[in-house]
Amino acid sequence: MDGIEKSFLADGRRPIYSPLLIALSAQPSVLARKTLALASIITGKLAGVVPKRGVLIVGPSQQRITVNLSHEILVLEKAIREVKRMIDADKEALFRLNNHCSECTFSGSCRKKAVEIDHLSLLNGISEKELKKLNGKGIFSVTQLSYTFRPRRSRRIVPTVKNNYALRALAIREKKTYIVERPKLSTFSTLIFLDIEGLPDRDFVYLIALCI
Q: Would residue 148 count as lying in a domain?
């Protein structure tokens, strides 16, 4: 943009600033029209009114041409919204809770945001690698992950999964406690009972008892 022309709306009170561009070609080019349209959008953000027309000074004769930019402005505004959406999506992808949140003064606001968007990092212990893997499958929230859990139907003894995030997500969504497998308790003829009593808020233990 090479200049700005000031004029007034029909009421004669509100000013409108139209962009001006000097071009070497004798006819308005597509690039020149888009440049004027982008300048109109920027000018409108600053002045409060987006001008729908721009001025081109073209060719060696410096002919003045008034250009209607309504179509170009609509196309550019749509593209700008899409770029902004992509940038915001990247920011959301970078956002996550981690082990250092407890030391940060913004931990409260970050956790509130994580709860609002149902972020996967609400599952304690989930790694960056696991997050990227789930995001690659189109899973971005705890609720989405909860629907991926499938219980094992095989009766064979299989190793217990250390961190079954899908099951944990299901427990959060349904507000239930799930047991992966029945606990196996061994009993012996000799039993030992340990009793520790104290005041946790004072970090004081006044009794330790052992019964065999």
A: no
Pick from 42, 107, 38: nearest CA to 79: 38
CA 192 distance to own-chain centroid: 53
Of 209, 176, 204, nearest in space to 192 by CA? 209
pLDDT tens per residue across all 212 residues of the chain:
678 877 776 666 777 788 888 887 777 788 888 888 888 888 888 877 788 888 888 877 788 888 888 888 898 888 888 888 766 655 555 677 887 888 888 888 888 888 888 888 888 888 888 888 888 888 888 999 999 988 776 655 555 556 788 999 999 899 898 887 777 878 888 889 999 999 988 889 999 999 99
**DSSP category for residue 12:** S
Q: Please give the tally of structural domains in the chain.
A: 1
The whole-model pTM stands at: 0.43
Domain range enclosing 80 = 3-89
